[in-house]
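Field log, afternoon session.

UNIT: design team B
ACTIVITY: writing a sequence onto a fixed backbone
BACKBONE:
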């Protein structure tokens, strides 16, 4: 990475939902952005 280039961004959100004492469901959303990655097709 060169000086002055924007950094890649990663955002994630997950919430554990306890259905029973030993059973957990965890819906999750992840988003990644890589600036200047459009040379490979898309920034996302």
């Amino acid at each position: 990475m060169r000086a002055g280039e924007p950094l890649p961004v990663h955002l994630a959100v997950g919430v554990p939902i306890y259905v029973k004492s030993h059973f957990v469901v965890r819906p999750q959303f992840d988003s990644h952005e890589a600036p200047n990655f459009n040379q490979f097709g898309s920034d996302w």
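LOG NOTE: The mean pLDDT is 81.
NEXT ACTIVITY: expression trials, pending approval
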